[in-house]
Amino acid sequence: MSARYSLVGVRKATTAPQEAFIAKTTEVLSADDRVLAAYLVGGFAVGMGDAFSDVDLQIIVAKEAAEDLAESWIELIHRIAPTVWIQPFGIAPGAVRRTGAGGLCITPEWMHFDVVFRAEGEIDAHTVVGMVPLFDKAGLLPGEPVPRPDRRTEPFYPEVTVNFFLYMVGNVVSAIGRDEPVPASNGVIMMRDIGLVGLLLAEQGWATTREHNAGNPFPFTKRLRRYLTDEQNALLGSLPPLSPTIDSAIDGYVALIEIFLPRARRLAEASGGAFPEAYARAGISYFERSVGARITV
């Protein structure tokens, strides 16, 4: 952790605010005749919740109350906790006065909770994995918590990730050639976070650290360290510091390429994948002759 700052708030942080919120949620919602059941998903449902985790709340309401709650759910949420920001799901940022069937909520103490309202019959909660029931008035939920299946597999060759990385090897030359240091440094970040991290996760059998990854190309969210080995974490930490200069970007590209390619080849061989050697050679050759760098792989 940082040596320059005390991190006093981080070091004192606990899950007490989330636990108090969950208890208050259960109390308020179970007393509301319109609400039939509620359960948790996300980190606090699968044993990974910590002081920096949000609370993911799913609420099932009676069919006859669904239309009313589509308009008044924010008032119900404010009976549980005050908020400084609510972003209804499916609504463009800034349209905070519109309502819908739930949204992202932030309290004055910056506790983040997500809430989703569903009408009775809209979902069969018995099919939900990674959930913890809070209360159930109508027999809609499993009687006990349902663990999340292990998403880890055997190591695999991440073809899409490798192809993306190799494309970027040649494509980043355009930012360098146009003397665009900020886009060039952004390319280093993309190649690290989508390419190298994706490869390292695949070496461990993880497709992603995300519980829900649809539509998001980044393989990890705010949690990564526990999914990688000590060697992999040290490797990421060994990458050269990045600043918005062309030289810094090129240093970053060279380091990433020299790390990525041997590991991708080994993983392809070990898992039966087909590494595209011609594609890799073309990109490396173009990069080398364009920027005057020498890639050793």
Write the layout of secondary structure elements.
Blueprint: H1 8-12, H2 16-30, E1 35-41, E2 55-61, H3 63-80, E3 85-88, E4 102-106, E5 112-119, E6 132-136, H4 159-171, H5 173-177, H6 181-203, H7 230-237, H8 246-271, H9 277-291
Parallel strand pairs: 2-5
Antiparallel strand pairs: 1-2, 1-6, 3-4, 4-5
Helix pairs in contact: 4-6, 4-9, 6-8
Describe the overall structure.
By secondary structure, the chain is of the alpha+beta class. The protein has 2 domains: 8-136, Beta Polymerase, domain 2; 159-291, no CATH class. The protein contains 9 helices and 6 strands. Strands 3-4-5-2-1-6 form a 6-stranded mixed beta sheet. Helix 6 (181-203) runs parallel beside helix 8. The two termini are 32 Å apart. The model is unreliable at 92-100 (pLDDT under 50).
Number of domains: 2
Secondary-structure element pattern, one letter each:
HHEEHEEEEHHHHHH
Shape: elongated
Radius of gyration: 24 Å
The side-by-side strand order for the widest beta sheet comes to 3-4-5-2-1-6
Q: Low-confidence parts, pLDDT < 50 over ≥5 residues?
A: 92-100
- Secondary structure class reads alpha+beta
- Major sheet size, sense and barrel closure: 6 strands, mixed
Distance between the termini: 32 Å
